[in-house]
Design brief:
The complex is a heterodimer of chains A (about 260) and B (about 240).
Chain A (H helix, E strand, L loop, with lengths): L2 H12 L15 E5 L7 E7 L2 E12 L10 E6 L16 H17 L8 E3 L3 E13 L4 H14 L2 E5 L5 E10 L7 E8 L2 E4 L3 H4 L4 E9 L2 E8 L6 H19 L3
Parallel strand pairs in A: 4-6
Antiparallel strand pairs in A: 1-2, 2-3, 3-6, 5-6, 7-8, 9-10, 9-11, 11-12
Chain B lengths: L17 E5 L7 E7 L2 E12 L12 E8 L15 H14 L11 E11 L4 H15 L9 E8 L2 E4 L3 H4 L6 E9 L4 E5 L2 E2 L3 H30 L4
Parallel strand pairs in B: 4-5
Antiparallel strand pairs in B: 1-2, 2-3, 3-5, 6-7, 6-8, 8-9, 8-10
Helix pairs in contact in B: 1-2, 2-4
The chains are: A alpha+beta (about 260), B alpha+beta (about 240).
Amino acid sequence: MNNEMKNHLIKSLNEDIRIDKRKKSEWRDVEIETGIIKTAEGSARVKFGNSEVIAGIKLSVGEPYPDSPEDGALMVNTELLPLSDPEFETGPPRIDAIENARVIDRGIRESGAIDTKKLCIKKGEKVWIVSVDIAPINNDGNLIDIGGLAAIAALKDTKFPKLDKDNNVDYDEISKKKLEIKETPIPVTVLKIGNNFIVDPKKDEEEFMDARLTVTFIKKGKMCAMQKGGDNTLTEEDVIKMIDLAEEKYLELSKKL
Amino acid sequence: MVYKKRYDGRDFNETRPIEAKAGVIEKADGSAYFRIGGTVAYAAVYGPRQLHPSHLQDPRTGILRCKYNMLPFSGRGERIRPAPNRRSKEISMITEKALIPLLNLEDYPNAVVDVFIELPETNAGSRCAGICAASIALADAGLIMKDMVAAVALGKVDDKIVVDLDYNEEAYEDGDVADIPIAMIPSTGEITLLQMDGKITKNEFREVLKTSKKTIQKIVDIQREALLERYKVKK
């Protein structure tokens, strides 16, 4: 790590100036488009500045797990496409892709956004499986937040395909029935660099972070998932400050959906 | 039954609407977006850059490495598992072969030029869309190229020669269907990709080749336009 660069970054942050001239608690421009992919049952494209992610939902019919015969399944997968960043490599998902998917997955699962009982087609035999696939097209940082927002926007756009008389999917026939989404979980990541807290980091800022905390909110005052990252510690006071900042940003983002 | 009118109302020698953009991925050395009807391709070029693992390096020449990938939600049926399969590996290979003739890879000994092609949505013709996007991205990366290359699937549906088959036409059941992806360097007429599946007579195939030139030229014009738009001096 380049210490001079980090010192410079911290000095600027102390004066509330980021590398792209934003303030510490300022988000980049947000663009959300849904229904962008015809081959998906639900889809969304979300941009935070130059960072761009596509999320697509596929619904399929499968067998339920033996210990929950009436529950459908949710699966979240992130592929850090080598197309989107020179540092992403081809091959099986690395730990950063797995963490990204799991943090987003926990937010959606624990929020209760999807009632898995309602995904039951025939108890013990057939249930709907909801697959959320997250694909960054352009990585300029903050892929958890942008992926999480894209995932929930795509889920809200999702319509069931039709089933034939044997309960097999006919993908050519989309029904009017929408996937019911009861909550809108949105992850917000706060980075700690020196003694500064910033939101919606660019990639260059992520490289210099000491620690980060991702907090997923479902409404004011109510959280459903958290993840600390980075090699350095956070104090109790840090955590409280970061949660407060995350909530403030959650309230802004939730208005855009 | 005779195929009199195309399912989507196009003329037999007409492609679906095409949209092309250069420079869509900030971190890439070159990038492009290419849409033909319901088939969308992104391409990013990284390099020439150091090749890892180093035993793959060749001191006589650089190498071109392409990766074609359909995103899990890009097919009209079930979700596609996000690991390379036999089909995507073959398409990656023929994409390399379609692009190599454009480049002077000898200029980049020991290096690699990586081309990543991702398809968020497909409705037939995805390898061709990928090659079209890659061609723009290579030019956008500033690599010295002999020309652009463009690709399109032509073929036969029943007794008609058609340009740019879509999924419904590939699945036509009331007569013969031939699907022939072709990539061509328009200034020289050199063919860099040719595949076929289906039944066709020699005479019909000659007509396909003749028709392909006009279509390829039209696509190359759109590719050039995208590059010009990207590098236009803004007033």
